[in-house]
Amino acid sequence: MKVWTCRTTKEREKLGSYFADLCKVWAKKMGVNHWDIDVILEFGTDITQDHRELLDGTNGGITNSNPTYERATIHLCALDEDTHWTQREIEEIAAHEVVHILLSPVTNTFSGQGDNFLRDRTVESVVTRTSRALMGWFD
Ligand SMILES: [Zn+2]
């Protein structure tokens, strides 16, 4: 099984490029390909403090969406050179992050309101269930 690694600059470039392509495919499937979507691989010390806090010690994706201007940035964050993802994991991250964009006109409405923990958990749960359903992967 293919495993995506981050040991060398070349491996990170390949991963970043492949992940950006996957995000494009999902953006098209979900009808948000007309959005201006940037995809950035953040590695090691380049990961911002804000993103470190959101990641809470794990590797993964973070997406910021602006539905008004239909702009979004997807960050794939790899904490260090030991970071690796299976093919299935990297595909799931791409689909998951694009679902965040798709649902952002709804989910951004609740941003800053109510209980942060409950809101974030609810949004993550909805996004995960939706992306897995779209991928046909329910475990
Ligand atoms: Zn998420």
Which terms would index this structure?
50% helix, alpha+beta, 139 residues, Collagenase (Catalytic Domain), two-stranded antiparallel sheet, binds zinc ion, 4 helices, 3-stranded mixed sheet, globular
Q: How does this model look, in words?
A:
The chain contains four helices and five strands. The mean pLDDT is 94. The relative contact order is 0.17. The protein has a single domain, classed as Collagenase (Catalytic Domain) (3-Layer(aba) Sandwich), CATH 3.40.390. It is globular, with a radius of gyration of 15 Å. The two termini are 19 Å apart. It has a three-stranded mixed sheet, with helices on both faces. It has a two-stranded antiparallel ribbon with strand order 1-5. With 139 residues, the chain is α+β, with helices and mostly antiparallel strands.
The sequence of SSEs as H and E is: EHEHEEEHH
Residue fraction in strands: 15-25%
Given this structure, which CATH class is correct?
Alpha Beta
Bound molecules: zinc ion
| C-alpha Rg (nearest Å) | 15 Å
Task: Give helix % range.
Answer: 40-55%
Strand order of the largest sheet: 2-4-3
Named CATH topology: Collagenase (Catalytic Domain)
Number of domains: 1
Low-confidence stretches: none
